[in-house]
Amino acid sequence: MSRAMTLTAKELSALLAQSEGESIEFKRSTGEMKEAMQTLCAFLNGIGGTVLFGIRPDGTAEGQDVTDKTLREIAQATERFEPAVHLSIRRAKAEAGREVVAVSVEGGLDKRPFTYDGRPYERVGSTTRRMAQSRYEKTLMDRAHGTRRWENEPADRVELRGIDRDEGFRIVNITASLGRLAGPMGSRLANILDRLKLRRDGKILQAAVVLFGKEFMPDYPQCELRMARFKGTNKAEFMDQRQVRAPAFKLLEEAELFCQRHFPMPAKIVPEQLRRVESPLIPIDAMREILVNALIHRDYSIAGGAISLAIFDNRVEVWSAGTYPTGITPDKLSKTHLSVQRNPIIADVFNRMGLIEKWGRGTNRVIAMCREAGLSPPTFEEITGAAVVTFKVNVLGPGRTPGEAATQVTTQVAVQVTVQVETVLRAASPSPKSREELQVATGMRNREHFRKAYIEPLLAAGWLERTIPDKPNSRLQKYRLTAAGKRVAERRSR
């Protein structure tokens, strides 16, 4: 510690240009050693930072006399940190033979929380303050979380038969096609789980259930997605709602399908192209990024929690159980920030699927995509123990009423699946039919695909309606043509 590296004039100038803030602090001399070390402790508990000795509060570099004793005092002060830390010390020349000393630390370390003289500190803007006891205790728990987390605990009573083999190999084949899972895959599910670190000592981990669970989903209420389209701008009246408990990638697909059903597709005529160019209500990649973040960053230890997708006339909200990870605050998500992963095993599989990166740029990309599309950036909040992202948009479309929005959806359905839609409409006339009867009429074999691709879009379009609307999952449920559906059927039969 008696030697220090050189800080160039250019580097010093760059540090001074930042002014005091979240990661920079000015001290006139090492006479303020105690306060400086408290600030370094706060930097260690945050994103890291630098304390500059020999700088006046206005940012003028007046320097101070620096001797070996000065450096020894800094070294002795570091002995009061717990856990032990490494400081980077650099020296720069100032006026009249005096020097500026820059002491830097890295943040985002697995050893947090740090204390100085037995007390923890945190940085709020340009101020250093004592960390609240509740936050200190939470950060201590997060430190333990680095090696012991909900996702890497064994899933009690779950064996290989409780894992969806088809879903597992579907995801693995995609990752392999993307070049993100090299080498032979084999045909055994156990090998796949081992390759993805979803088993330890032969025991299936909780993360495996989140990603590929099957039989034991009832025991995992946290693997749930709640979706609703509300009428107006509050939760007084539902227009549509669904609750799904399934593996993570299927939940993502369900959320995207729900958005497709309830988002209009505004279009404009581009003269140079002589055609209508459609653009989604919210950029597809931006919406997917937020949904993926909710799946990989949520606190799965909250058994009663879920991910919620709420669509109102004027906004779209995505709620995820649990607060943001330690070190990440809502305001930081719109700035450069660290990538802090609450569930790194789950996140790794999503990364292999090409759905996320690991550089903490996801929310910044979402903001950029929204601005490019002419939308306001989403807002990030913590509300009653949940992480909330809100897109402020006109879900009905410019100047549209709910009825007009429904007409627009039906037009999209008809264009995409004209022949199949006509078959379903004819089968539902003149009397109501069950889902099985409608599916047989079309000759389709996959029940889930038929429900998602035809029944639900036609319900959303207003061409079909349930005979028992208050019990959508009733075994006696049937579907009949609405007046709008009859008009379409009659028009098509001419």
Structure notes:
The strands form six sheets. Strands 13-12-16-17-19-18 form a six-stranded mixed β-sheet, with helices on one face. It has a five-stranded mixed β-sheet with strand order 1-5-6-3-2, sandwiched between helices. The chain folds into four domains: 5-145, Methyltransferase, Cobalt-precorrin-4 Transmethylase, Domain 2; 160-215, no CATH class; 224-392, Heat Shock Protein 90, CATH 3.30.565; 402-493, Arc Repressor Mutant, subunit A. The chain has 494 residues and is α+β, with helices and mostly antiparallel strands. The chain is built from 16 helices and 21 strands. The protein has helices at 9-18, 33-44, 68-78, 133-145, 165-177, 189-195, 206-212, 248-262, 284-297, 344-352, 362-372, 402-416, 418-427, 435-442, 447-461, 483-493, and strands spanning 5-6, 24-27, 48-53, 81-82, 88-93, 99-106, 115-116, 119-124, 127-130, 199-200, 203-204, 224-230, 238-245, 267-270, 275-278, 307-311, 315-321, 379-383, 386-392, 464-466, 479-481.
